[in-house]
Structure formats: structure tokens, C-alpha cells
Amino acid sequence: MALDEKAGGLMGTDSNERISDEERNVEAKPLKSKASDDPFGDEEHSEVKYKTMAWCGIILILGLGLIATYTGYVIGQFKLAYPGVHNMADAGEVMLGPVGREVFGLAQMLFIVFIMGSHILTFSIMMNTITGHATCTIVFGIVGLAVSLICTLPRTLHKVSHMAIVSFISIIAAVMITMIGVGVEKPGHNVVQVNVHTQFSKTFLATTNIVFAYAGHVAFFSFISEMKEPETYMKALFLLQGSDVSMYLIVAVVTYRYAGPDVSSPALGSTSGILPKLAYGIAIPTIVIAGVINGHVAAKYCYVRLFRGTDQMSKKSWGSYGRWAIIVLLLWTLAWIIAEAIPVFNDLLGLISALFASWFTYGLSGVFWLYMNYGRYRESRQKMALTMLNFLIFLLGLTICALGLYASGVSIAADAKSSNGSFSCADNSKSES
């Protein structure tokens, strides 16, 4: 759901900042004749503020996307250097021994389970939107749990890869409906806030939402391991990142331009009438399959961790299938608990990005490069430049983690006082980014 989850915060604003009717209907003041006067005048109540030059959202989408492409490249290089690495835990063992395996493995598991939880939360929002809150939201969450569990039961990624094609088509169709819908309805009343002065915590929470859009790196080792030709990974990476960055930019700019600062979260609910029901209905494959892929990666890690080196890895028996099913059940149950415990969509994304995506997408890739090139940092100017670059990427991950935890903590504390609370039957489809 990366395409539709980010539109509320992508343009560097916070949708909790409301635009009053007075601001929407401000009449332009007559221009003065003196050439020395400011042609834009006092922009305090202007609908379009020209004196900004601060398209932070677009810069962040593009900048973080380019860095994520490079860090994905580094992950591929690390995999080629150490073919036995199947996941982040294996990478941790290469660098830090058994302790690294346990630390990295636990972090990877928690990250993926939190992502699975975000998909269950999105599923409940989707069901509330389509049915008009026909029943308790907890019931919809349980339905999402059951559907995701069943779809995760296949033990290989072969069938999952076919489902991913359906997922891609569905999200493209859903966002197209949303963009066309907001373009026609103009729910933002043609108010465009190019720049907004708001609290730092809200601004950085929007930044973590963009980071979440590039959170797939945690699964890259597993996908490379199951590729028939691992050396073609780089082509797949560049295609993925090029498509991602382009789509994120288009969807963010168009949706924010017409929906204004009150974009719903997820953005598929930014229209009215039948359109959000239609968009969510078409997005069902993405909501389910994207979560299932993450669930499969988590289950595969547990399965490989427990049965690596035994005949259970390749054996087809009721016992092996039963063990896989139990692992899948436990993981999706934990994901459901997370979804019910943190019911505010943006808060959950912010926490996930701060705790995990900051490292798996950015910080750790810098560490991987530094480890692979240890002792050769000064052998050439190019190597020195790359050393500095990867050290800065490590610092970027550290910064996103620290500031993201602060921002998400502030937001969770504030929303706990105003939201419907954990494990609530209330309608969660009316939330805004």
C-alpha cells in the first residue's frame, strides 16, 4: 500500500492543519503601481503562497528514493560477496557472529510483523469504507487475519510472485480512480499550501511516512536467494526503484493538488460517494497480497531458522506443512494484536519507519559497505568518497530513528486522548493523515 499511504504527508504539510472558510474566500488585494512594491504582497492569508521555494515533500520523495536505490545496490553486493546470506539475521552473523544473528534476526522479525499489522489495519479500514461500518471493526480485523493467513500457507514464493502481478495492477487502478476522483471533486477547494508552518513532530512524522514507502529492503536478501539468476537482481532493483519513485511523485502531487491538506489516510478515502468504495474494492488484492508477501518472508525466516540443515526444508509431509502453518498462525495473530493496539494508521507507520525502516533501508546498508571494504577506505579518491557517503548513510539511518521515535511518540500520546482507542469497535475509516 505504499502508493496510497503516503499522499497525506508527501508535500511537506500536515493535514491536521485546518483551512478556515475565511482563508478559502480571501479576496486578492489590488496591486500597487510602484515597481518597488512586493508583487505578491502579504501572503499570510493567501491561498497560494509563492515566497517559499520549499517543495520539501517532492525533494524528500526523490532524495530518499535515490538513496534507497543505492542502499539496495549495496545489499545486492553484500549478497554476492556472501552467497550464504538468506536474510538480515545471516548478514548480522557475518559481521558480528552469533550475537549479530540474534539481534538482526529479532529486529527483522519485529519489523515484518509490524508491517503485517499495518496491512490488517488497512484491511479493516477498507471493510469499514466499503460496508459503511456494517459491524465491529475488530471483526473486520479478524477477517483480514484469516484471509492473510490462508494466502500465506504456500511454502514457496513461486505462487506469491504470481499474486504480486495482480497486486500491482490493482493498486495502479485504485490510485488512478482516486486521482481522477479528487481531480473532479476537488475536495481541497483548490487550496494549495506550498509551505506550512507546523510543529516539528508533525513534520517529521510525515517524513517517516515517506521512509515507509521504501521499506522493502528488509526482504531483498530472501528474494535474491530465490531468484533463478541472482546476478539479474540489479536490473530488477533499478526497475523497482524507478517505478516506485515515479509513481510516488505523481500520486503525491496530483492527490495533494486537488485533495488539499485534508487528505485521508490512506489516501484512497479522500473522495466521496461511491468512489472510495470502488477504489478500496479494487485495492483489495494489494492490501492482502502485499501483507502476505511480508508474512511469507517472516514465516520463511522462522522456518529456515528452525529447520535449516534438516530434511524438513525440502520434505513434503503433513508434519512439515503443519509446522509451517503453526508459524504462519502465530505471526499473523501477533500482527493482528499490533493492528488493534495502535489503531491510528499514521502513528503505526511512523513507529515502524523509525524503529526499523530507518536501519534496514538506510543505516545498515552503510554498515554493510563499510564492512565489505574494511581496510581499504583510503586506497583511492573514489574509495574515500564512497566511505564518506556510506558513513553519512549510516548517520541518516540513526537520525531518522531518533527523530522518528520522538515524532511518533508525541503523535501516539496525543491520539490516545482523542482517538477511539485500542481494540475498539468504532469506525476507523474516517481518519486523516
Report the β-strand fraction as a percent range: under 5%
* Poorly predicted spans: 1-36, 46-54
Distance between the termini: 15 Å
Mean pLDDT across all amino acids: 82
Walk me through this protein's architecture.
The chain is mainly α and 433 residues long. The protein is built from 13 helices and no strands. It has helices spanning 2-5, 21-24, 56-81, 88-131, 137-151, 157-185, 200-213, 220-225, 233-259, 275-307, 318-341, 345-372, 381-418.
Give a quick summary of the entry.
By secondary structure, this protein is mostly helical. It has 13 helices and no strands. The radius of gyration is 23 Å and the shape is globular.
Give short descriptive properties of this protein.
disordered N terminus, mainly alpha, 433 residues, globular
Layout: helices, strands, pairs:
Elements: H1 2-5, H2 21-24, H3 56-81, H4 88-131, H5 137-151, H6 157-185, H7 200-213, H8 220-225, H9 233-259, H10 275-307, H11 318-341, H12 345-372, H13 381-418
